[in-house]
Each structure stands twice: as C-alpha cells, then as structure tokens.
Amino acid sequence: MSLSLWLSLAAVCAMGAMSPGPSLAMVLRHTLGGGRVPGVVASVCHAAGVGFYAALTVWGLGAVIVHQPVLFKAITWGGAAYLAWLGVKALRAGRGGALETGGVASRPGVAARDGVLVALANPKLILFFVALLSQFVSADMGAGAKAMIVATASLIDAGWYVLVALALSHSAVLPWLQARAHWINRATGVLLLGLALRIVIG
C-alpha cells in the first residue's frame, strides 16, 4: 500500500472515530463515572471490536474480489451511496446529543464489556467498513497489507478514545468538545462526501 493511499485510509478512519455517536458517549460515560482507568479500558476494548469487524471485512472483500467481481462492483457503488448518506447526515447533525452524557458509577470490568459490545452490537459499523474498505482492498493485496489496514483502523480508534479518556481528567475538556461537536460533524460529512465522489468518478 502506497503512503498516499494509507494516509487516505488513516484520515477516514480518524474522522469516523471522532464523529460523535454511541461509542464516544460510552467512553465519556465510563470516564466520567469511574475515572481514567475505566475510560481507557473501554477505549481499548472498543478498538478490539473495531479490529474484529475490520478483519472480517478485509478478508471477506478479498474473497469477493477474486470470485465475484460483479458483486464487488455492486458493493463498491453501494458503499459510495452509503458513505454519501452518512456524509449528508453528518452535515445535517446539530451540536451532537451524543456528547450530552452524565457520569455513572463504573468499574474496569464493566467498561471492558461495554467497550466490546458497543462496537460489536453496532450494525452500522460493519456497513461503514464494507463501504470504506472496499475502496482500499485489491485482488492482489497480500496478507501483510490487509493486516496493515486492520491495524490502522484499530489503532486509530484506540488512540482517539484513549486520548478522550485521558483529556477528560480536565474538567474543561467536555464542554469544549460539546461546543465543537457540530464542527466535527461537518468535517466528517465533507470527508465522507469527498470519498463517495472519488469512488463515483473512478
């Protein structure tokens, strides 16, 4: 995988992780309710769930490319439509109700469970990966390149949420995030629409 292609992948993964949603709300809840350790545990376990879905998607798409090229083309175009829909939805989002969360008592074990379940129980996550990773997986891609894609998605997800958990030890950070949630949504929307357009024009 070329550096420019990897940077595109990393940018989209980062914006996907940063977009306000149930995953961010879960990390905020455990951080505010239990402190830094439960927040970090929830973040890392969520990234493990993300990596699991990314691995299933990458290796599954590789098989589809080889054996069902017409189906892969349909997945690619469907993925473009889905990314465009997500982009429009992000642009129309307000100030991000997902950031309006209160602290509840939390322990590392509960945080670990919730981190994994929020990732695995989110059907939109697998749709997002199918739409996104179909643009980066090729028929001749080796196992090393596929592993790099999975690692990129997992590490960026973990890095962002761990950073959020660590930053929330300062009381001013959450209001700062809440005030700028609409800008995060807008940046995510523009990026997703740009990727969808890139797919359409080939």
Main sheet: strands, sense, barrel: none
Q: Per the principal axes of the C-alpha atoms, what is the gross shape?
A: globular
Put simply, the count of helices is 9
User: Ends: how far apart?
Assistant: 18 Å
User: Fraction of residues in helices?
Assistant: over 70%
Structurally, the number of domains stands at 1
- The overall pLDDT, averaged over residues, is 78
Order of helices and strands: HHHHHHHHH
Please report which band the strand proportion falls in: under 5%, 5-15%, 15-25%, 25-35%, 35-45% or over 45%. under 5%
The count of β-strands is 0
Descriptive report:
The protein has 9 helices and no strands. The chain has 202 residues and is mainly α. The protein has one domain. Helix 3 packs parallel to helix 5. This is Lysine transporter LysE. Keywords: Cell membrane, Membrane, Signal, Transmembrane, Transmembrane helix. It is found in: Cell membrane. It is a multi-pass membrane protein.
